[in-house]
Signal recognition particle receptor FtsY
Amino acid sequence: MFGFLRRKKNQVPGDAAIESPVDSSVDAPEVDTLGTDTSPITEPVEAPSTIEPEPLPAVITAEPEPAQTSTQIAIQSAPQPVTQEKPKSRFWQQLARARNNFTEGLGDLFLGKKAIDDELLEEVETRLIMADVGQATTRALIDALHQQISRKQINDTEALFETLSQLMIERLERVQKPRPAPTEQPHIIVVCGINGAGKTTTIGKLAHHYKQSGHKVMLAAGDTFRAAAVEQLITWGERNQIPVIGEPGRQDSASVLFDAAQSARARNMDVLIADTAGRLHTQGGLMDELKKLIRVVSKSIPGAPHEILLVLDASIGQNALNQARQFHEAVGVTGLIVTKLDGTAKGGILFAIADELKLPIDFIGVGEQIADLRPFDPKGYVDALLDREDI
Ligand SMILES: Nc1nc2c(ncn2[C@@H]2O[C@H](COP(=O)(O)OP(=O)(O)OP(=O)(O)O)[C@@H](O)[C@H]2O)c(=O)[nH]1
C-alpha cells in the first residue's frame, strides 16, 4: 500500500502534521542493497494519539497543538488499533524531499474517493511534471494509465497507483545493464561532468564501494584545473587508505592519467578511477581536451578506459539531459551517476534520463558521506519516491 493513502485513511482529526527534514549529519552506514538498511527513522510516522509523545529531536518542527475540543478528547480516549510501522531505511529518509513533492496533496484527493476521475489523473500528471519527469515521459505514463482504465484493467485508485509504479519501474529497467565486472587489471574508469556536479566526491565514494567489495583501488587526480580538487582527491585517498597519483601543481592532466595507468598496472591494481576537470558541455575546447584524455588512456592500456562515467547533478533537472547528450556525443559515455538526489524535489529526472538518453544509471548519490552512493535499483527507487510500502 502507498503510505500517503494509508496515512489519510487512518488520519484522526487533530493529528499534528510533523515535518521531518533529512538530517545529513547522521553517520552513514556502509553501502547497502536497497531496503535492507534499518537505520533510525526520522520519516514522519503518525503515532496513535493515545501513545505518549516521544521527546522530539531538535530537527523536527511541529505546529503548536491547538486546544482540544471535547469531541477530539472523546476520539482519543477510544481504544485505537496500534499499527506497527516498518522501520524506514536511511535511503527512504534521504529521498524525503523528492517523495514529499510527489505525494503531497494526493492523499487529500484520494480521501473518500474510490473511483478514478479526470481531476485525479490531472493531479497525477501535474505531480509528474513538477517532479521533473518531463513532458514526453509524463504523457507516455498518463496515456498508458488511460488505456488501462478504458480496458477496465484499473478499477480503483489504489490499482491506479500500483500500475503507475509498475510503469515507472519498467521505464527505468529498460535501459539498465549489469555493471561491468573489473576483470581486466587495471579496470580503468574515467569520471567526467560539468563543474560542481559532484565528480570528486563521487570518486571518493566509488573507491569505497570497490574497496568494500575487496578490490585494490587507485585514484588519478586528473582535475589539474582546480588545485583544491587534487587535495580533495588526496583526502579521499587517505580516507579510503588507497594510493592517489598526481600532486598539486601538475598542469597536464593527460600525463597524470598516463602515469596513473602505468602505475596501476605495475602495482597490480584492480581498479583505477580517474578524476577530470569540470567542464561545460558547451565549451568546445574543453570537450576536445576530454577526448584527448580518453585517447591517451586508451594508448596507455589496450582496451582502456573500460568505463566513462558521467556525473549529473539531479538538482539541475531537465538541464541534465542536454549535458548528458553532449558529453555522450563527444566521448561515448558508458553509464551515469546521478548525484544530490537527497537534496532535491526533482527526483523524476531519472525517468526523463532513462527515456531520452537510453543510458544506464549505474549509481545514485544521496548525500555527502562516504557510503552515500548506491548502486541504482529501479524498484527500490520508485518505492521510495511513491511512498510504496512493501519494501
Ligand atoms: N547532498 C549531496 N551533496 C553532494 C553529493 N555529491 C556531491 N555533493 C557535494 O557537491 C559539492 C561539489 O562536489 P565536488 O565533488 O567537489 O564536485 P566536482 O564535480 O568535483 O567539482 P569541480 O571539480 O569543480 O568540477 C560538494 O559540496 C559535495 O559535497 C550528493 O550526492 N549529495
